[in-house]
């Protein structure tokens, strides 16, 4: 990194234009790992600066506060997940205007599974996401809504169109059940070994997706009465 001290830290002062994007991404990468490990309350911006090997003032320069830094971290990859969900759904609808419930649910889940298994950074985001989904603070609720609601509502609309016998409000309720369950399994909290007496301790990503999709497709189709 240009303008660095002997210990690898960037020298104080405003970065030049060429450094802007790189420095911001380095800070976001390290903040993502820190928040994933320690949660929001357990992470200090000074810790992030140490990990990123930048002056603490640069975090204030780029993000202003810890809240804003956390939001930027979540929006970065959460936005990728939401955008890919919409892309997969539109591709599905282009091939078939009435896709199966299984195909719709698979398209919704796949971006999360792909991100988790894309490497350490993707896995860190999944852990960070678990932290924010467990929070009830207004900040967390607003952020989740901002990042995910547009794609989620598009999926609810599509499911309602292929399940006309199920009221839209019920489809939305079942999607809430679906989201809570898949996040639980995505974060390896399902106690597979305990519940199968050690016979199944791990499922490959594709196998996990297959079972979740089949299970929740049946739930989506279940009669309301």
From TrEMBL:
Which key words are in the record? DNA-binding
**What segment(s) does the record annotate as region Disordered?**
1-20
MF terms from GO for this chain are:
DNA-binding transcription factor activity; transcription cis-regulatory region binding
One Pfam family from the UniProt entry? TetR_C_30
Q: Where is the HTH tetR-type domain?
A: 21-81
Tell me where on the tree of life, at the top rank, the source sits. Bacteria
Which residues mediate DNA binding here?
44-63
Q: What is this protein called?
A: TetR/AcrR family transcriptional regulator
Recorded source organism is Pacificispira spongiicola
């Amino acid at each position: 990194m240009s303008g660095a001290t002997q210990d690898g830290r960037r020298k104080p002062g405003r970065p030049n234009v060429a450094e802007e994007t790189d420095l911001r991404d380095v800070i976001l990468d390290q903040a993502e790992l820190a928040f994933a490990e320690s949660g929001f309350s357990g992470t200090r911006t000074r810790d992030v600066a140490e990990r990123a090997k930048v002056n603490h003032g640069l975090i204030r320069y780029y993000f202003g506060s810890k809240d804003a830094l956390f939001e930027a971290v979540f929006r970065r990859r959460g936005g990728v997940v939401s955008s890919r969900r919409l892309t997969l759904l539109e591709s599905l609808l282009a091939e078939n205007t009435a896709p199966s419930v299984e195909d719709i649910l698979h398209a919704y889940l796949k971006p999360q599974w792909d991100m988790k298994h894309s490497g350490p950074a993707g896995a860190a985001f999944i852990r960070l996401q678990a932290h924010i989904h467990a929070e009830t603070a207004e900040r967390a609720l607003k952020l989740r809504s901002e990042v995910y609601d547009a794609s989620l509502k598009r999926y609810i609309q599509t499911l309602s169109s292929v399940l006309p016998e199920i009221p839209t409000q019920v489809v939305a309720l079942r999607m809430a059940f679906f989201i809570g369950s898949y996040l639980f399994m995505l974060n390896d909290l399902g106690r597979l070994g305990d519940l199968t007496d050690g016979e199944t301790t791990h499922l490959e990503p594709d196998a996990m997706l297959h079972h979740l999709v089949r299970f929740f497709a049946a739930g989506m189709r279940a009669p309301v009465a």
